């Protein structure tokens, strides 16, 4: 079969990483670059998610879904979702969710959607096998199975001419095993590509082991059987392949064939619910079901990009979450501040929120975390704690009270110097100290500069209540 020239595996990995990933508007690149488990990295992951409103809503929807939240404890903030679901789970969920979003725009939507639905079905089957066997880390099994064919998905989205060639070869040679065609046309298999991408993108050890066939972790078998079930189901629930999968499940779990078959069928039904949580609701028709029931695909309208509005119910949820964080044996201050900032950002309906921390020598404050802030601008947010010429920063630090800079020529308005105005991109914003027993830890500023919506008294009262509550909680535990 003539081709335009085989592509090396390393070249394809490089192409997908350097040319394909930027299509995700930089968010996935940032998420993929966060690879450790310390507090700083967890905060970076939280901020990266919150900068993308549609990704924020998807992560929170998944964190509160029956699939991931079986104790039904409501999760109101992304920071809590990261803590509850786990660093690697959230990171992988984000990558998969962004690929779902990209898939909806691609020209090979049918082929990619089939791959993604197959992966989701396999992931649900694998997770339920792990639960039935009483193994720990069933969520890690789910993610490993979900990303097991990440190379196939990424290739069909971003493969370009190589994907065109392989698609043509598949059309011309319907009886030839796919992996043989892949090697003949591309010079490597898409399974090899999946393995290479999981290493390049740091998508988790179990994912990598499942692709290599390693027996170093017994949960690899869950992933392998999960995919065998998903592939078998596509040939029909009475096919030879699904009967072989039923035998494998029966032996693996020491169940009767009837019970193994029941577990597999229930998992297929559960995949329908999971598909909707992942934004694949319009593709549920592709999930092979064990009954003849007809399911109409429900098109999901894209989520509109809107600015956050004041939400008193969300405020209460976040305040409850802050209270729960303060009651933990070892209070995670970074997580507490993350939840506080997110609560003001989403609950009070602000466009931008920045936390500037006091330096150890108490001589200055500098931007540490920001939502809606460009990294470069946040890093330039630096002010001395004391100044010969008073400004609103020094006033808040000395008076230890929340202030509303509303642009008027009042005492507070006159404290918004040109330097402060330039840093805040305007003269209208809320500002308050964050304290522990009266000692200032830093300051929080919030505004609506981007949407140009006016600040109002109700929003200021909510902002003050958030910061006062946070100070009271911090004082009670430190």
Polypeptide structure, described:
By secondary structure, the chain is an alpha+beta fold. The chain folds into 2 domains: 9-286, Orthogonal Bundle (Hypothetical protein af1432); 312-477, GAF domain (Beta-Lactamase). The protein has helices at 9-20, 27-33, 39-50, 53-63, 78-85, 87-103, 109-132, 138-146, 150-158, 161-172, 178-186, 190-200, 205-212, 220-234, 240-253, 257-277, 312-326, 333-347, 375-379, 392-399, 411-414, 418-424, 457-477, and strands at residues 352-358, 364-371, 382-384, 403-406, 428-436, 439-447. It has a 6-stranded antiparallel sheet, sandwiched between helices. A hairpin with a 5-residue loop joins strand 1 and strand 2. Helix 8 packs across helix 13, helix 10 (161-172) crosses helix 11 and helix 17 (312-326) runs antiparallel to helix 18. The longest helix has 24 residues, at 109-132.
């Amino acid at each position: 079969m003539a081709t335009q020239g085989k592509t090396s595996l390393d070249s394809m990995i490089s192409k997908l990483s350097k040319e394909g990933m930027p299509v995700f508007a930089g968010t996935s690149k940032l998420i993929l670059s966060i690879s450790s488990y310390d507090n700083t990295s967890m905060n970076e992951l939280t901020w990266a998610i919150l900068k993308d409103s549609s990704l924020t809503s998807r992560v929170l929807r998944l964190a509160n879904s029956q699939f991931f939240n079986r104790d039904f404890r409501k999760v109101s903030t992304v920071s809590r979702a990261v803590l509850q679901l786990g660093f690697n789970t959230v990171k992988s969920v984000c990558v998969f969710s962004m690929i779902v979003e990209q898939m909806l725009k691609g020209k090979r939507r049918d082929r990619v959607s089939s791959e993604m639905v197959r992966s989701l079905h396999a992931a649900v089957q694998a997770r339920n096998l792990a639960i039935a066997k009483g193994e720990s880390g069933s969520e890690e099994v789910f993610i490993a199975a979900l990303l097991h064919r990440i190379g196939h998905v990424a290739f069909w989205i971003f493969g370009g001419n190589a994907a065109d060639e392989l698609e043509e070869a598949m059309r011309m040679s319907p009886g030839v095993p796919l992996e043989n065609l892949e090697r003949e046309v591309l010079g490597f298999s898409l399974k090899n590509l999946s393995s290479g991408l999981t290493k390049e993108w740091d998508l988790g050890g179990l994912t990598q082991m499942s692709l290599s066939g390693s027996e170093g972790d017994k949960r690899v078998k869950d992933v392998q059987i999960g995919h065998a079930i998903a592939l078998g189901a596509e040939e029909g629930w009475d096919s030879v392949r699904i009967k072989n999968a039923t035998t494998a499940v029966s032996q693996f779990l020491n169940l009767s064939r009837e019970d193994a078959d029941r577990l597999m069928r229930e998992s297929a039904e559960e995949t329908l619910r999971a598909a909707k949580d992942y934004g694949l609701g319009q593709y549920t028709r592709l999930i092979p079901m064990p009954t003849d029931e007809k399911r109409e695909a429900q098109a999901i309208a894209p989520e509109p990009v809107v600015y956050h509005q004041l939400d008193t119910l969300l405020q209460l949820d976040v305040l409850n979450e802050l209270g729960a964080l303060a009651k933990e044996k070892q209070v995670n201050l970074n997580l507490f501040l993350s939840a506080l900032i997110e609560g003001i950002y989403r609950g009070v309906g602000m466009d931008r929120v920045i936390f500037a921390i006091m330096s150890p020598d108490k001589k200055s404050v500098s931007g540490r975390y920001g939502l809606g802030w460009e990294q470069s601008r946040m890093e330039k947010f630096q002010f001395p704690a004391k100044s010969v010429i008073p400004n609103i920063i020094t006033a808040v630090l000395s008076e230890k009270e929340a202030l509303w800079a509303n642009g008027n020529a009042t005492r507070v308005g006159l404290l918004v110097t040109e330097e402060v105005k330039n840093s805040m991109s305007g003269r209208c914003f809320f500002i308050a100290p964050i304290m522990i027993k009266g000692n200032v830890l830093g300051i929080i500023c919030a505004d609506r500069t981007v949407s140009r919506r006016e600040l109002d008294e109700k929003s200021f009262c909510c902002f003050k209540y958030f910061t006062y509550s946070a100070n009271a909680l911090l004082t009670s535990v430190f």
